[in-house]
Amino acid sequence: MKLRTEDIENERKAKFMTLYNPLHERLVRFVQTLVWDKEEARDIVSETILAAYEHFEKVKHHEAFLYYLFTIAKRKMNRRYVQQKRQSPWTDELNDKAEDTSPDALKKLQIKELKEAIAHLPEKYREPLVLFEFSGLTIKEIAELSNLTENGVKSRLVRARQQLSEILDGTLHGKAI
Amino acid sequence: MEKQFNNELININNLEKGKTGNTDLDNAISNVKEEPLIFSVEEANYLVENAMTNDVTSSVIKNTIVIGGAVLLSAVFGWMYYEFNHKPSESIQTNNVTTKTNTSESLNERNKITLSSNENKYSDGNSTELNSTTNNSTEAISNSNIQTTESNINTTIANNSTVASNSTTTAKKNTTSSDKQATKSSIDDNKKSNSNFSKTIITQRYFDDGSAKMTLEYKNQPARITINSRGIESLFINSEEVDPSYYYLYEDLAEEAFRRSKIEPLAGATHDANAKPNINAMMTGALTRRGLIKEGEIFNFELTPSVAILNSVSLKADVHKDLLQVYQSAFGSSLPRGGKFIIGKQP
Lengths: 177, 347
Hints:
Chain A is mainly alpha-helical. Chain A is built from nine helices and no strands.
């Protein structure tokens, strides 16, 4: 009987991993681009995986697993953000924790600047941009995930890119971001 | 404007990943995409392998359940510990430290100390008296770990209403859905922390009162720790509760817990959170950590709900807000309207 329970559990795990594995890199890129603190990002990824694993049977269609996974990740990040605001003392420390492992100093600087610029984007532009550019989601997938039309996503992406260029060029200095 | 709109129209139907039209931006995006992943697929697999279905519980606990022999053994030890630990405790008199408590409320097995200041004055200097009562009426607070106060510090809390601190509550928390703010489970390779922590899964829950509870593997044993800003609320190693007087032996564990939960240890990581808080020392420590004063510096500080003044200089709004948060964490309740917290002599 115990063996049977274990078999069922193993089967469940295997099924989950089959769904999860192709999306792993997309998920991690999404989180690590938006969350600077490496430890924090790792925590969010692991929380997301476990939360997704807990109820993934509820996902009726395999195609919907992507939206299910990314929605959980978004919620986890929002919750952390709220919590960090509540526990303010360490926020400055987080800025120093922006990590990248690139050996090239110029690359490092570019990455840091880009991440800073992304952090300054309004939320409605930030998320579609990261999902599109870094997580590799299609416009249709982003539209589904964000509850927007495809044209709405496209428009936000264009504006996000424009603002990002402007921030990086320093042209947004003096404007309210 | 029209030009910009036209550009937008052109771009909008021709969006390609990594091709923004800005070479620098494209390069930066490609650099970010080349960054190594912070979480590998193997780690994800490991996480799922060790996850329990119904509750996100650590593999440590799972193993403990499986190894029945170990459970039996720990139960025996637990019983012995219980027997040993529940002998009538000795009364410890503290010399310097005092709290004036006009309290008739009971202190039920160290569950709650209520500090009330009906006289609108709370003194934490060298010359007040400790006068707590317990349910058993004769037992003094054991191991209260009340910290000594710095001699140059006088505290006055002026307040029209009663200031009550539930700061030392160890009553079991009801984990309602609203209390449970987050459940965390993560693989921790603990590169930063010391080798006492093996690769393990940690579960963590945050509560609305600002405390956090987590389970982790410590020296190959399951450890469960509940912390808040004032220190350790409870600590269980291998299902056995550790006496607060031995918390200092688990400094690395406590520091790890504070680091992971990002709670600021106001009174030190191994401080007994159930002991009476020394708000002066906590606030002094907080000011020092924030670089507002130097260690050992004599200073004057005044905190009200509307302003924070350090050495006659009014602090910025965000610092003031932060210090109000520190006060709330230390005292257990926010500074009431019209209330004033003072360290040092005021003009």
